[in-house]
Structures are given as structure tokens and as C-alpha cells.
Design goal:
Largest sheet: 5 strands, mixed
Mean pLDDT: 87
Distance between the termini: 108 Å
Structural class: alpha+beta
CATH superfamily of the largest domain: YVTN repeat-like/Quinoprotein amine dehydrogenase
CATH class of the largest domain: Mainly Beta
Radius of gyration: 54 Å
Number of helices: 8
Strand order of the largest sheet: 65-66-67-69-68
Low-confidence stretches: 1-25
């Protein structure tokens, strides 16, 4: 608690005496730089940090108590180190990062992977004797001869090949570079110059033999050495105590580390009081601690990056302080804890209108609140004073206080008419009043427009513009007699469709402009008595639908705008034209923009819901600084990390791996969450995809071919990085490879050949079928027809006497046989009879008719439910075989009983016809047509035929065929 009180008292003292570098003794010196705090939850590491560095690409590395952290502008990555502790970190001129940890030291190795590099720690301990008790490495410095590390007992020097060391029997503290040489402080012996193989005492350094040494700073003209409690200025062998405004503060809070910033100012980080920024002459610029923005008062390391941002390593996370930006905040830390609606300045006093009163802030940087004025809006500078309009009336500021000058009449806007005469208006009433700073006389009054007045601007002694909150623009003209106002004319200037528009009137460069919410920036054409788009500051301000809220001209002729939800400045060029810039002003990201004010000193103020922001145009900042975009991991199917991407060695993927995810980031650390990216896959995308804050891009089902993936980033300042390429090739699927096409050709050829063979077989089969039918017709019908022919000739032959009627009977019988044979052939080749059921039915009917007509007893056992369809050739031959067997049994066997069986089993059909007739000697009947035909037809269908017969012992036919 004692420290807290001391800190508070000292801050008040600093505010009373301190100034900003390059600023005069005004309120402008007491704003706060933009501060971004990063918690341990965000970077997913230990809360305590020790130091920072960047490599040659701009990648940030942090010495964290738990590991080394790497930040690419989007994601935090960790690099494991032995002992899981790092205390010091730096990088050499080549960008190699060197790390000191718990009993170990080494460097970060980057793999040769293109874009998506891998980082890993490489220890230098293999080059150090095992007998050394190294302990913690508290400091590391990279210089021209090599890299130096120090622990309490040792100083190590790594020359790129070997590690050398120096040992002390007391204690080493601090490594620093001075005039191109490396020095260290050895307790009880003073400061020594470090060489590869020796320590050389520095005679003047004996001053620190009994003093601690925490930091060394060297500006262009001065050198400073700091112990734990105070700093000393060194001049030609003489150390004298540095006379500065924070001596008591540093003595109370302790010095931990120091550095000279790029603007030549001094930064001192303390053990218990945050940081102190001083000029080289000892003036306090600012103190930052846990009371005004830092997460902790203990700052163990600091680093200034290329953009001028100051990174602070604390015991409670990381802070980035944008000291190089030309912006400073004035907010609750200055006592401003309300939304600011307007801002102005009178002499050296800052005046702020707020939602419930007003503030004034003098050179001490502490805001004083004036309550009881409810909502205050506008300021008006007049020769009699500064006037402020509020809902309770009009107040005049003088001598550090606001005095109410109007109470019954409460105008929303005040404008100058002439001399001491002002015009004030509400929505219901407008008054012309004489202001003398005390008594105010109403000279003329009349009924208002019915809509709230937003701004009033004088055009001439008889001509005034009045902009409204939601009713467009009016022109007010006065009629006068003997200098007195006797009447007025109020004319609506805009089109009727603009009745809902808010209009502010602004005087810029001696010309009147109208800021509208819907028609952009406009000017007045007196001849046409109408408004027209004003393109003086660029065509962007005339876009249809554009809202222009504020416009203020500074003392250099530059015009500051709030238009289209962006801050912009139109900078006046030597030829009278304007160059519009937006980039740097993009850093002002407060939600509300309530006013812009340019003071006489060249500063521009922005009123927001968080207070006010001051912009100092004289403080130079290069927002156009280039930066790199990095392609991070390239993932296959969202899982496996792949490598590659070189033009000469692209990433080669199998077709089944053609689902890719690219991750990327930008090494731009100013509001990285507002960085945008766009990508294009050449060969896949027709054009760049739209800008987006997405930090990854997914591609699915990428066709085979060669591609180049490109990514660009655009930071908060609107600066676009160079395109980063990544090369890849997706192989064709196996079914679209050359050998697959060869298989297709071979297979196609085989299919064509097979089709040809099938067709040939079909043609041959048809041919055989024709031959078979012809043969059947010839064999079965030819003899019968020949007989008919012979019988007919016999009838015609007159030489043959007797009764010829028997020949007619033979002709009739032969014709019947021929008809039956033809019917059998036609039935056999008809495809409608391909089912087994029809075939079985025909067989039963034929057998039963034959047996019954001859009085023969019989037994039929014929399967009708045989699966599949019958082949025509099988059906024909099987039918003729069956018919021949039945006919033989009926006509020639003399049988009294015949058993017929046709059964299907196991894919085979077995036909059996057995009779109890006379039988015969099969050897004697071998040449008979019946037997020959049965055997021939059985052979045609691949059947196995058996004949079992003996004279007097019956006949049994057995036929088996595979279906």
C-alpha cells in the first residue's frame, strides 16, 4: 500500500511538470499511447515473460517462463526448450534467434520447408564441458564477432562454431554493447570488456564494482548507466547522477532494464512501477503502470520493433505500447469518464462537452468536470468568450468555470451574424441576440422550422445557412431598415425527397460546404439556387448514399473528414488540389464519432464515447511500411501437414488427397484482428476471392493438374503485402492415368473382339439353324413328299389297272404325316415355347394321346416346374427325341404298358421311356433311321443316351442332358 500511495503522488507530480517530447507546455503532452494487453490465456503460455525479439522476416519471439513463444500475427505457437524456462532472447544480423534458459542456451532452427517452416530449439550445450554448472542464462547479446550469453557465474561466447566461456568467483550481471564492443559487469571488480578468450577491465568501469548495473543507454550525444535505484550520465571518464524528473519514482520502484527508443527518448522499465519514458535531458514524458494501462507493474523485458511499437514483458502477460503512433488518448486516466460529444480549446485549456456536462483540462493534464448542464453539444468561439449549448441553456466559459448566460431560451446551435450579434436556434424558435459577455439583448425573434437546428453559418450580413437534424437545409434572409432587422424569409433549399436528411454547414477554405447524410458533400449554386455535389476533395465524397458527418480544416489547409464510417484527411497539395488519405486514421476504431476539432497548434482532436484522441501530424509514422504474409500449415483433409511449395519442387498429391486447407497470417502487429486476406488458386479460381478476415482457405475436390496458390494480406492501414505463392500438383486418379488408358484400350479392343465373336457366333448359329431346319425338312418331309409324288403318278399311269383308290388313301396318309412333321418343326423353333411348362404339357398330351389311341396302359411322371428358359435347339431336338421314343413304343414294341419319366435334379434333365414290349436286337437295328436320328439329336444337345433292350424283354431309353 505504501508503494501505491507513492506511485499515485508521483504521477500527479509528473502530470504537473511533464511534457510530451516535441510538445510545448500544453495539455497535449498528457495523453496515453494506444496500449494492447495480451493475457496468458490468449497466447496459451505462462503468465511471466522476460524478453522479445524478431527474426529477419519480422516474426515475433517471446522468452516465456514456460517456453519460447512465436507469434505470426494470427496464432501463437510454442517452441519447447529444456527445463521449460527461458529468461533471455535476441537475434543476430542474419535473423537467427538465440535463447537463454534454465541451465541451457542455444538457438531456434528453421527448417528448409517453403512457407510453412518448422521451428525447433537447438542446444549449444554439446560444445560445453559437462562439469560446468551453468544455472540460468539471464542475458544474451548478438554482436559482430558472435553471440554472448551470461549466467551468474559464466559468460559464454559462441563464434558460430565453438563455445568459449569465462568464469567468475563473484557474479556477472548485464551484457551490453558499447561502441561496437561487448561489456559485462563483474561484481566487486567493475565493468569489463568481453573478448573471445579474455575479459579486459575497463578502468572507468570500476565505478560499478560496488554498484549494481541494470542497464546501459547511448544516444547520439549522451551515455547513461543505470543501477537498481538510479541512473548516471557518463561523460569522458566521469559518472554523475542523472538529473531527471523521475528520480524519486525510480528509487522507490527499482530499475530492471533500459533501452533507447528510435525517437531518441529513454525507456526505463521498473521492478514495481511499470515504465518511465524520459527525454535525454531528463524531462518525464510519461509513466505507464497498472494504474493507467499495463497489466502489471513488474516489467522484466522490453523491445522496440521496426514499426516503433514497444513490447513489454511483465509478470502478468504481454503489453504492446504504440508509442510511435501520432495518437494519444485522453480518457478515464485523465478523469474523463463520459462520452464526449464535442471538443474545443481556449488558450491552453481543452474544453470537452459531454452527455451530462462539460470538462476543462489545463496544462496539468487533469480534467475537471462541470456538472449540472445535462447534455451539451456545440461550442462557438466569439470575441466575448467561448459559448457552449446544452439542454439547460447556453454557458460561457471563462476563468476556469462555465457561467450560464441563457436559461429560458435553450438553442441547440449558435452562429455568428455580425460583430457581437449571434443567431441561436431551436426547432421552434430562432433569435438574433446581441452578446456582450454579460447582458444579452434579443434583437429579433421568429418561429423556427419545426425541426431541431444542427448548425448555423453566416454567408453575409443578410444571409445565413441553417442545417437541421432531420429536415435538410434552409436559407435565412433578413430584411433591414436603418440597420435594424424588420423581417425575414426562410427558404427550404433541398429537394423534397431530402426532407429526412441531416445537414451540417462547414466553412472550409473560405467556401461553404454542406455535409449531408445521403448525398455526400455538396456546394451551393447561387444561379440555379440549388445544391450540387462538391468534388473539390475527390469524387469519393460525392458518391450517392454517402454520409458525411464531420469536416474540419486545420491551420495547414488540410481537411479532416468523418465520412462513410471512416476518418479521412484531404491533404492540401502545392497545386491547390487535395490528396485523400485514410490508412493511418484507421487506427481510431472507437464506435462513436461525435466531433472533429483542429486546434491552433496543429493538433487534431476526435471526440468519441471513450474520451478524446489527439492526433499530432508532426509526429511522423510510416504506415506504408511493407510487411510479409506467411503461409502456415498446409493440411490434407484437414489433418495431415504437408510440405513443399517450391516452384522447382511443388507439393505433389495423390488424387484422393485433393482436399486442402491453407492457413496464413500477416506479420503486421497493429490491430492484427483487422487484417484482411484474399486468395486465388491459379488454375482453379477465375479471380481473387473477396477480401476477408478468414485466416484459412479450404479447397475440395481439386482436379488433377498444376496449381499456384496465392495469398495477399491488407493491414489496418490499407497496405497490401506482396503475393506469396505456393506451388502444388494434384496427380490424376488411377482411372485417368496413362496405364489406365492403356487398359481401357486393351479392354475396349477385347470387348469389340468379343462382340465380334458373339455376333459371328450368332450368325453361325443362325446359319446352322437354317441348315438344321433345312436338314430336318429334307429328312422329315422329303421322303414323304416323294411318296406322294409316286402315288400321284401311279394314279395317272394308265398301264396300271385295277382299283387305284388305295393310292389316294396313301397320299392322304402321307400328307398328314408331312403336316405333322412341319408342325413339330415350327413349334420347336417358335420362341414363345421357350418355357419348360409348355414343353412338359405338350409332352404329356402327345404321350397320352398316343397311348390311349392304341389301348396301351401308361404312367407319366413329367416335371413342369423346371427353372429357366429352354434353348430353342435343345427344345427342338429334345421334342423330336421324345416323340421318336413314344412313336417306337406305340407302333413297333407291341407293349401293353409304357412308363415315361422326365425329371430335373442338380441342373440335369433325365428322360426315361420304358415299355414291356417285344424288344429287339439293337445290333441289328443299328442302321435304322429311328435309332440313328435319336442318337444324332442327343449328340447335338450334348446328351448322354442309353438303350437297354433285348428280344422279348422290352425296351428302355435313357437320356440325360445338362441344362
Amino acid at each position: 500500500m505504501k508503494h501505491v500511495k507513492i506511485i499515485g503522488l508521483f504521477i500527479a507530480a509528473v502530470w504537473l511538470s511533464g511534457t510530451d517530447a516535441c510538445a510545448g507546455q500544453t495539455v497535449s503532452g498528457h495523453g496515453y499511447p494506444f496500449i494492447t494487453n495480451i493475457s496468458a490465456e490468449e497466447y496459451d503460455g505462462h503468465v511471466q515473460n522476460w524478453g522479445f525479439t524478431t527474426d529477419d522476416e519480422g516474426m515475433l519471439f517471446v522468452a516465456n517462463t514456460g517456453e519460447v513463444l512465436r507469434y505470426d500475427g494470427v496464432r501463437w505457437h510454442s517452441i519447447s526448450v529444456p527445463g521449460r524456462r527461458t529468461f533471455s532472447i535476441t537475434s543476430d544480423s542474419d535473423g537467427t534467434v538465440f535463447v537463454g534458459g534454465a541451465g541451457d542456451f542455444g538457438y531456434i532452427s528453421r527448417s528448409s520447408r517453403t512457407h510453412s517452416r518448422s521451428y525447433e530449439y537447438v542446444s549449444l550445450l554439446p560444445g560445453v564441458a559437462d562439469t560446468l554448472n551453468i544455472e540460468n542464462i539471464w542475458g544474451v547479446v548478438a554482436a559482430e564477432p558472435g553471440v554472448f550469453f551470461h549466467s551468474n557465474r559464466y559468460v559464454f561466447f559462441y563464434d558460430g562454431d565453438q563455445v568459449h566461456y569465462h568464469e567468475t568467483d563473484t557474479r556477472f550481471s548485464l551484457l551490453f554493447e558499447k561502441d561496437g564492443n561487448i561489456y559485462t559487469r563483474e561484481a566487486e571488480k567493475g565493468i569489463k570488456k568481453v573478448r573471445a578468450n579474455t575479459l579486459i577491465p575497463w578502468e572507468d568501469g570500476r565505478f560499478f564494482s560496488d554498484r549494481s548495473l541494470m542497464g546501459y543507454m547511448q544516444t547520439e550525444e549522451k551515455e547513461f548507466f543505470c543501477s537498481f535505484r538510479n541512473c548516471y550520465e557518463y561523460d569522458d571518464g566521469d559518472f554523475r547522477e542523472f538529473d531527471h524528473g523521475a528520480s524519486e519514482y525510480l528509487e522507490q520502484n527499482g530499475i530492471d532494464n533500459t533501452r533507447v527508443l528510435s525517437d531518441g527518448t529513454l525507456m526505463i522499465a521498473t521492478r514495481n512501477g511499470g515504465i518511465v519514458q524520459l527525454t535525454a535531458d531528463g524531462e518525464v514524458i510519461r509513466i505507464l503502470n497498472s494504474d493507467n494501462g499495463l497489466p502489471s507493474n513488474s516489467v522484466y523485458g522490453s523491445y522496440e520493433d521496426d514499426s516503433g511499437s514497444l513490447w513489454l514483458a511483465t509478470v502478468n502477460g504481454i503489453s504492446r505500447v504504440d508509442v510511435s503512433l501520432p495518437f494519444r488518448r485522453y480518457d478515464h486516466r485523465n478523469g474523463i469518464n463520459e462520452t464526449i460529444t464535442n471538443v474545443s480549446m481556449r488558450n491552453d485549456t481543452l474544453l470537452l462537452a459531454s452527455a451530462s456536462g462539460a470538462f476543462h483540462m489545463g496544462p496539468d493534464g487533469v480534467a475537471q468536470f462541470h456538472e449540472g448542464k445535462t447534455f451539451c453539444r456545440n461550442f462557438h468561439h466569439h470575441r466575448s468568450g467561448l459559448y457552449m449549448t446544452c439542454t439547460e441553456g447556453v454557458f460561457r466559459y471563462a476563468d476556469g468555470r462555465f457561467e450560464q448566460v441563457l436559461s429560458e431560451f435553450r438553442p441547440r446551435a449558435i452562429g455568428e451574424f455580425r460583430g457581437d450579434t449571434l443567431i441561436a436556434g431551436t426547432g421552434e424558435e430562432i433569435q438574433v441576440m446581441l452578446f456582450d459577455g454579460g447582458q444579452n439583448e434579443v434583437l429579433y425573434r421568429f418561429e423556427g422550422t419545426g425541426h431541431r437546428i444542427k448548425s448555423i453559418a453566416r454567408c453575409s450580413d443578410d444571409f445565413v445557412w441553417m442545417g437541421t437534424e432531420a429536415d435538410g437545409l434552409y436559407r435565412l434572409e433578413f430584411e433591414k431598415e436603418n440597420g435594424n432587422i424588420t423581417g425575414h424569409k426562410l427558404t427550404y433549399v433541398m429537394d423534397e425527397e431530402d426532407r429526412q436528411s441531416r445537414v451540417s454547414v462547414a466553412e472550409i477554405g473560405g467556401e461553404t460546404f454542406f455535409l449531408t447524410t445521403g448525398r455526400g458533400l455538396m456546394s451551393y449554386d447561387a444561379d440555379a439556387d440549388s445544391l450540387f455535389p462538391a468534388s473539390r476533395f475527390g469524387e469519393r465524397f460525392t458518391e450517392p448514399g454517402l454520409q458525411v458527418f464531420w469536416a474540419t480544416e486545420d491551420n495547414g489547409g488540410n481537411v479532416w473528414f468523418r465520412a462513410g464510417e471512416q476518418y479521412q484527411v484531404a491533404r492540401l497539395q502545392d497545386d491547390g488540389t487535395y490528396d485523400v488519405e485514410t490508412g493511418l486514421l484507421s487506427r481510431i476504431d472507437d464506435r462513436q464519432s461525435n466531433a472533429i476539432y483542429a486546434d491552433a497548434g496543429g493538433h487534431v482532436w476526435f471526440a468519441t464515447e471513450k474520451g478524446v484522441i489527439r492526433h499530432d501530424p508532426e509526429r511522423k509514422f510510416d504506415e506504408y511500411r511493407s510487411f510479409e504474409t506467411k503461409i502456415g500449415d498446409v493440411l490434407v483433409r484437414g489433418d495431415s501437414v504437408v510440405t513443399g511449395g517450391d516452384p522447382d519442387e511443388p507439393l505433389v498429391l495423390d488424387y484422393e488427397d485433393n482436399d486442402l486447407r491453407f492457413t496464413f497470417s500477416a506479420l503486421s502487429y497493429h490491430q492484427p484482428e483487422r487484417t484482411e486476406y484474399r486468395t486465388k488458386m491459379e488454375g482453379f479460381d477465375d479471380d481473387w476471392l473477396p477480401w476477408s478476415d478468414e485466416v484459412q482457405r479450404d479447397y475440395t475436390n481439386i482436379p488433377e493438374g498444376r496449381y499456384r496458390f496465392l495469398v495477399e494480406s491488407r493491414n489496418v492501414y490499407g497496405v497490401t503485402s506482396e503475393s506469396v505463392p505456393y506451388y502444388l500438383e494434384v496427380l490424376a486418379p488411377w482411372y485417368r492415368t496413362w496405364w489406365a488408358y492403356l487398359i481401357y484400350i486393351i479392354t475396349g479392343s477385347l470387348v469389340i473382339y468379343t462382340g465380334y465373336r458373339i455376333r459371328l457366333h450368332q450368325v453361325t448359329r443362325v446359319h446352322r439353324m437354317r441348315n438344321s431346319i433345312a436338314s430336318d425338312l429334307h429328312d422329315e418331309i422329303s421322303a414323304t413328299l416323294s411318296s406322294i409324288s409316286f402315288f400321284a403318278r401311279a394314279i395317272e399311269n394308265e398301264k396300271l389297272g385295277g382299283d387305284k383308290s388305295r393310292f389316294v388313301s396313301l397320299i392322304s396318309q402321307s400328307a398328314g404325316d408331312a403336316k405333322e412333321k412341319i408342325t413339330d418343326i415350327v413349334w420347336a423353333i417358335n420362341p414363345e415355347h421357350d418355357d419348360w411348362k409348355s414343353f412338359a404339357l405338350k409332352c404329356r398330351r402327345y404321350a397320352s394321346d398316343c397311348f390311349e389311341s392304341h389301348g396301351i396302359e401308361y404312367e407319366l411322371d413329367v416335371d413342369g416346374d423346371i427353372p429357366g428358359r429352354m434353348d430353342m435347339q435343345v427344345r427342338k431336338n429334345l421334342w423330336l427325341i421324345f416323340k421318336e421314343m413314344i412313336t417306337n413304343a406305340v407302333r413297333h414294341s407291341g407293349a401293353r404298358f409304357v412308363r415315361v419319366s422326365m425329371k430335373h435334379s442338380g441342373g440335369r434333365l433325365r428322360l426315361e421311356v420304358a415299355d414291356n414290349g417285344s424288344g429287339f436286337d439293337s445290333s441289328e437295328k443299328k442302321s435304322g433311321n429311328g435309332l440313328r436320328n435319336i442318337r444324332a439329336r442327343a449328340g447335338q444337345i450334348g446328351g448322354q443316351l442309353e438303350l437297354d433292350t433285348r428280344p422279348g424283354d422290352g425296351t428302355c431309353w435313357k437320356l440325360g442332358i445338362r441344362l
